[in-house]
Amino acid sequence: MASGSANWQEPPFVTMQRLTATDLDRVRQLITRITGLAGLEPDRVARLTLAVNEIATNAIQHGGGEAGVTIQIEADQVVIEVNDTGPGIPTDIAVDLPEPEATHGRGLWLANQLCDEVQLRSGATGTLVRLVMALA
């Protein structure tokens, strides 16, 4: 754990399943609390929380109405995975910033801007997005 984790009280691994839009506030609060206690700096906590909110919102909207979120604190990083059981993301989806007049399509782009690393696995049985932030 990072040196700022002396007050760590939470388990290093938390999984929440079957989340809907009404659960997003609780997810944001939990991420903020856990990652802050783990030693992630406040501006990085805010960036990661926003990225997870965007990805979880996408998972709920486009992946069958529910999402799962797993938060894992490792020795030198925070890893948050968001998964759904939807039909998958099209292989030709752009991760570029959409045109200013577009009303959707910024979630993956934003997560890539905010996190140290973003990994995406998608197929016919669902999508998993892995968001990583270094603790140091």
UniProtKB/TrEMBL annotation:
GO MF terms here are:
protein serine/threonine kinase activity
Q: Which UniProt keywords apply?
A: Kinase, Serine/threonine-protein kinase, Transferase
Superkingdom assignment:
Bacteria
For whether the record's keyword set contains Cell inner membrane, the answer is no
Q: Name one Pfam family in it.
A: HATPase_c_2
Which InterPro entries does this entry report, sorted A to Z? Anti-sigma-factor_SerPK, HATPase_C_sf, HATPase_dom
- Histidine kinase/HSP90-like ATPase domain location is 43-136
CDD domains registered for this protein in UniProt: HATPase_RsbW-like
Does the record carry Methyltransferase as a key word? no
Supply the name of the protein.
Histidine kinase/HSP90-like ATPase domain-containing protein
**Species name:** Rugosimonospora africana
